[in-house]
Amino acid sequence: MTRRPHVAVIGGGVTGLAAARKLSRARIGGVQPQVTVLERSGRVGGKIRSRSFAGATVDVGPEALFAAAPEAARLCRELGLGDELVPTMRSNTAVWSRGRLREMPAGILGGLPDGIGPVLRSGILSPAGAARAGADLLLPRDGGGQDESVGSLVRRRLGDQALERMIDPLLGGIYGGDPDALSLRATAPRLHALASEHRSLIRGLIAAGRSAPRAQGPMLVTLPGGLQRLVTRLRADLGETEVVEREGVVRIDRLPDGRHLLHTSTGRELVVDATLVAAPADAAAQMLRASVPAAAAELAEIRYTSVTVLWLAFPAKAFRQPPDTTGFLVPRGERRMLTACTLASAKWPHLAAHSDRVFLRCSVGRNDPQAATLDDETLVRRVVAELGEAVQAAGEPLEAQVTRWPDAMPQYTVGHLDRIARLDEALAPLPRLKLAGAAYRGVGVPQCIAQGEAAADQIVSALS
Fold it and tell me: Backbone dihedral region of 35: left (phi > 0), alpha (psi from -120 to 50 degrees) or beta?
């Protein structure tokens, strides 16, 4: 009888679960592998978490799936959830700049504005800021090629205002980081390509806007009842996979026969034929420090930032006039506690159905480091006061819920892609050991699913 290969998946977030599902359906030498998922916390799902709030279910981690990236929607269909995905009712975002909300130019949420005219008409840039951005047309062409920070390129070509009032808030909502540290090639590859291919960044944006096909359908979708339903269905679809919670891995040793010896946080030792690490980079660095020090050194260079999510429910009468936007971003130069706010009742139909209340989801932490030191009550009070200014929300919320995510968002700093290439090189002699997750090749749920499934395929190939 052929022995079943044993594969360990370290980390029970969506990356690890997607990988385990792929492994559980594989055949290696004609037999199904034995798969064990080890999750150090008391629950699977990672940052995907849904909670009951004010008579509804809301997401306190990722709240939507990017429709243009097919992996998540495809997985939902495979799990029988495809028909339940709902799109946003509309998608128009503003920037809170100089005392009021100013609508973001059309197309910019997809990566490119629909021409320069909408940018100028938005009023986000002052006349002086618009003139400085226009100077890009007269500046010499950039050489391109080398990685640099997003801030370095945008400041050089378009000026400080364009970065601080438009690009920084957008990137802050995705990565929660500093544009003067974030890698251009890793976080804004389209801007990098336009700067390399065109004499001016503005001309490149205009050309790309003309040639890019218009997106069909919604940009974002979600599951009513919360994205945790995806996690629940995914776990239920793992077949014979063993899922062990409250047990992580502290060290991975290489055995002479190519297998791995896992030392777990409970003191257990587990010998497996292959290992897929879907844990945060700092935890992965600790696991590999003894066996693959070069890989551990690269992993240790990946930094994380923290974020806090507040859900607030106001009575509908708290708004004299519902805001004409689905949300707004807050530049750091505004010196506000808020980083972003989603008017969820205007965005999602299942929350709009609660006609007697208005749901708002707020993010804090990037603009004001003090947010991490404030207690929940003070934090809510500060945010409610700012919402009174931004969207004229009157009175106190019916209910508030605070969720803190310490060290949750990996930072793709300058040189990130080179770092990942060196990491791959360090791990090349170990084809049965793979890494996947938000720290490496994309932070969104679809990208994490794609990484987990790709790593699973690579392990199956190595064992075969």
Answer: beta
Residue by residue, DSSP assigns 432-460 as TEEE-STTTS--SHHHHHHHHHHHHHHHH
| SS3 (DSSP) at 39 | strand
Which of 2.60.40.1180, 3.40.630.30, 3.30.200.20, 1.10.3110.10 would CATH assign to domain 103-211? 1.10.3110.10
What dihedral do alpha carbons 72, 76, 82, 85 form, nearest 10°? -60
Q: Are 360 and 344 in contact, with CB atoms under 8 Å apart?
A: yes
**299-311 exposure pattern, b = at least 16 Cβ within 10 A, e = fewer:** beebbbbbbbbbb
Hey, which residues does 13 pair with through a beta bridge?
A: 45
Task: Return the pLDDT at 371.
Answer: 84
Rounded Cα–Cα distance for residues 87 and 223 (Å): 9
The CATH code of the domain at 6-46+231-303+412-463 is 3.50.50.60
What mean pLDDT value characterizes the chain?
A: 91
pLDDT at residue 118 in the model: 63
CATH of domain 50-90+304-410: 3.90.660.20
